[in-house]
Structures are given as structure tokens and as C-alpha cells.
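Quick one - first record:
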Amino acid sequence: MQKTNCSTGCPVVTVDPVYPGTALRVGSTGSEVARMQKYLNVFLAGCGGGSALTVDGNFGSRTKSAVEAFQTAHGLIADGVIGSDTWNAVVCAYNGVCSGSAETYPGITLRPGMTGQDVLLMQQYLNELSATYPGISVQAADGAYGNAMSNAARQFQYQFSLSADGLIGTNTWARIVSVHTAAASANPSFVTTVYPGTALRVGSSGDHVRFAQSYLNGVLGTQLTVDGMFGAATQESVRAFQQMQGLSVDGVIGGATWAALIPAFNATLRGML
């Protein structure tokens, strides 16, 4: 008989997200604490919302009391500590009511200095998306939110018209999940990268050069190094693209060239070019 872990009969093997491996208790911080606060609020106040607990990622006395109440209600040892049994029961109860999963936003913004499985999931998704959108830098998937994670998040945000702050809040989290789902379903999302406002030319550098290089590679089938450095090879590819599009061939990415490049790249995503 398959072991279950809560009153809803949820099998242990299907609990998602999985227990992080370290018990959460008074003094613990981070997105995993926030996720438990968010999930416990369903127990305390219902799936539609409520503010029984402040979802701030700080495990204090109120969170401990809520954990104890949940444990008592579910026949667990009421010690106010979220070990594996309590984690599994909370996740199981939440998922049964709200259809949650590891893709459910944990409740607080992921930012530099944070660690854990929520950071790891976003790293894995961004790395996988870099195969379709090479303007996103590949990083070590180590569960630690450092500069590489900030860069990848910002590069994703620029390409999908989000506030490019390098943080993963509710909007960015939701968009990463939706774009990842679409890519995995072989129906990739179109980029909506806005023109930077200043023409890109030999000597330019930065994220928008990276995007242009990746888009040119997709449209022309070239193999520009996507490094954010506008050199002679990038200039040559820009000229080739401009000629193909009937634009002024000057090797500079101004507004007109950018406006043609975005839909041309999007067409390659759906095999329409």
C-alpha cells in the first residue's frame, strides 16, 4: 500500500514541491518559509486569500503558532517545526485545494543572496530557455541567487517586456513559468524586446547587443558569438539582414532595423521564416 502523508490521502511521492531537506523553525528565513506561510494561510483563511500570516519569509512566533495549529489539526506532533512530515502535509493540503505545484509562486520576491529550491527551479528554467532564447546567459544551477542569476533574470525580463530589475517577483515568476511551458510544448512565446532607444553599432556592448546577436543567428543561420560585444562579425550580419529586408545597408541597428529584426526572429520560433 502506498504511504500517504495527510488527511487528503496525498501520496508522498507526488508531493510537489518536495521537502527542501532542512527543517524550518523559528529563525529560519527565505522563500521556503514564505511558501509555507502562503500555504498555511489557505488552512487559516482559505484559498482566496486572507492575511492570517504575513508572507515575508521570516519564521517568527506567529508562524510557529500557525504550524502548531496545522499539526494539531492533521494529527502531527505539534512542535511548531516544519520537518518533512509537516512540509508534505502542508503542501498536500494546499495542492488539494489550490492545485499548486513547485511552479506556484512562493510568495516573496527572489533576489540576490537568497538560496534554496525555488531559486534552483528558476535557474533550471532560465537555462533551459536559453536554448530557445540564447540572449539569456547560462549559469550554474546551484540554488544560489548571485550575479549570474540576476543577469539571466534581467535578460529574460528585457525580452518579454517586464521591468528589468534582475529580481524574480510575481510577474517575472509567472512569465518564466508560462514561457517555459510554451517552449516545452514546442509552441515558443514571441519576444517583445523593446528597442533600446540608442542605435547599436561597432563598439556597442550590453544586453541588447546580445539579443540582436541571438536574433540574427536565428534569422540568418549564422553563428555569431552571443557575447554582447558589437564587432565586425556582428556588423556583417546586420548588413546581411538589412539587405534581406530591403533596409538601408549601414551595419547599424537603428529603430527600423530593430523593428524588422524582432518579428523576423519570432517567425523562426514558429518555423514561419
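second record:
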Amino acid sequence: MPLSIVLEEEISAFANWLDTACRSFDLAVFKFFASLHTNWLTPIVNVFTQLGDTTFVVILMIVGLVLCFSKKTRKYGMTLFFAIFIGTLITNVVLKPLIFRPRPYVSLADNADFMQWYTEAGSNVESDRSFPSGHTTAAFEIATALFLVVKNKKIKWIFPVYAVLIGCSRLYLMVHYCTDVLAGMICGIIAGVLAYFITRAIINWLQTSDKKAVQRINNIDLFFKNKNTEDAAS
């Protein structure tokens, strides 16, 4: 069965609405990014967009797990891990299969202007659906998580800049609509914020549990000291 027929059968009503209602807006954004295409910039964008791909995100998730084992870095590791986990769940497990929006180069295959821009950008092909942008979600979940836990004001602003550049790279390459990228940004921010508060709650619980455990040990020691004193006195 041709891909176009499959997509017409499986595409959701919401995806159809997005393609219709936001077509002019999405095409206007594509036109702007098409004006930026140059022979030297396209390879750089292709390399840069890999900072939001699955391999990079999995590596960061593993790094987050490793950081959880040290008390000094636990809040960074837990926030990073939970942000990636929640963002992946929202975007790749729930929204992409549910909405099933085709990539621009599929649904706009009959638009000569777009296909010319897409070809000039390198004709990249992706394996999953378009809404929301997984790269953008990943970039913003990581950026939001680190922005919230890193205290150094000079360093923390690097993360949102990184996330914005990742989102723009997806538009430059014409593999996502702007509405996909905006949705990915929202999903990523939500995931990062949830991860931050979940981590805070867990760490506070651990600290409270540690204090209670220490108090119990002190009470036991005090009990035996009093007992020994009483025995010596008798």
C-alpha cells in the first residue's frame, strides 16, 4: 500500500487540523529558514542537530544515572534522568503514535517551493512521526532540568540557548513544522520542571529519612548508656 494512502488512513483529526489551520504559518517559517541555506552552514547544522538525537540523549541518561550514586551530584543526575524519562514518555510513547502527523516532506510533497527548500537543506529523512519534535523535546527537557539545578548564572544560560538552536536546526533541515518544534519545546519544559520537583521531593525525603535514622541510632545509644549507668549504680 502506498505511503500516502497509509498516512491518510492513520493520520489523526488533530494532525489534519494542524496541517490545515497552521499551513500558512508553517510555510512562512520554512521560507525564512530556506533563506538561510548555504553550502557551508548546512553541514554544520547537520552535526549540531545530532546533539538532540537518540544516541546523545541515551548517553546523557546514563550519565544521569551514574551521577545519582554520588551525594554531591545526585540532584543533577536525578533531575537529568527524570527529565529525559518523562519527556520521552510524553513525546515518543504517547503523542507521536497518537497524533501520527506525517513529516513535512511527506504531506507537502506537492508543494514545489517547499520541496526545493527541503532538497537544498539536504533531503534528510526521519523514521518516526512529526508531532511533536523529539529533538526539540530532548533539548528543552535537558536544558530546563540543568537550568533549574545549576546555580552558576553565567553557565546556566548556555542550556536554553542550546535548546533553541536544536529546535531551529530541525526547521533549517525542513524535517519538522514550526508547530512541531513549539510543541516539543512545551513538552520539554514540562518534563524538565516535573523532573526538578520530583527530584526535590525525593532528596528531601531521603534527607528526612537520614535524620530520623540518625536520631533512632542516637536514642538506642542513649538507652544503652543509661542502662549501663543504672546497672553500675546498682
